[in-house]
């Protein structure tokens, strides 16, 4: 599919927990996500949704198949080169937040910029913290925050970046309805106004309903890739 900034062909992930006992988590998956759109990955627990997200983003190595990000084949890219590529082009939102507990909120926001040899845009960061109701928390250690507040910090961090592609695993799972709505509004702005590619794994029918495209995964297979949301969750 022309124009796809995230794509895979024949993507397969097999694990062998015991000798002569292999399990196929992803089975020859073809996937495409285009810039300027939010693509939602849905399906029941254990279907392979998160594994697909991690393989597409290069955080896990697939057993076979190919993956292209922004026209770059990352399938056999060296680990060091892949790390540099992720830092420059990709943003991540994890269920586990992945915040540095020894740092303050502001220091966590600055970390991706520091890794790139850049400075945190403080005005933009302050605006993002106000948007998420965290304006008074930026000097506090993230360990002093609630789970929902930590998730908002993690979201603010990735949304502040100039990542071309954002991968998000259940980004609204720990948030109240109002905060979740704000997150989706920012994602829409990044996709529609800034032309970014957003790929979201979700169990939420409300989140899926706001995606431009739905990819349904069942038992490691992609069942459909609809241009209209509403696939079964």
From TrEMBL:
<keyword id="KW-0547">Nucleotide-binding</keyword>
<dbReference type="GO" id="GO:0005524">
    <property type="term" value="F:ATP binding"/>
</dbReference>
<keyword id="KW-0813">Transport</keyword>
<dbReference type="Pfam" id="PF00005">
    <property type="entry name" value="ABC_tran"/>
</dbReference>
<dbReference type="InterPro" id="IPR003593">
    <property type="entry name" value="AAA+_ATPase"/>
</dbReference>
<dbReference type="InterPro" id="IPR017911">
    <property type="entry name" value="MacB-like_ATP-bd"/>
</dbReference>
<feature type="domain" description="ABC transporter">
    <location>
        <begin position="6"/>
        <end position="233"/>
    </location>
</feature>
<keyword id="KW-0067">ATP-binding</keyword>
<dbReference type="GO" id="GO:0005886">
    <property type="term" value="C:plasma membrane"/>
</dbReference>
<protein>
    <submittedName>
        <fullName>ABC transporter, ATP binding protein, putative Macrolide exporter, MacAB</fullName>
    </submittedName>
</protein>
<dbReference type="InterPro" id="IPR027417">
    <property type="entry name" value="P-loop_NTPase"/>
</dbReference>
<dbReference type="GO" id="GO:0016887">
    <property type="term" value="F:ATP hydrolysis activity"/>
</dbReference>
<dbReference type="GO" id="GO:0022857">
    <property type="term" value="F:transmembrane transporter activity"/>
</dbReference>
<dbReference type="InterPro" id="IPR017871">
    <property type="entry name" value="ABC_transporter-like_CS"/>
</dbReference>
<dbReference type="InterPro" id="IPR015854">
    <property type="entry name" value="ABC_transpr_LolD-like"/>
</dbReference>
<dbReference type="InterPro" id="IPR003439">
    <property type="entry name" value="ABC_transporter-like_ATP-bd"/>
</dbReference>
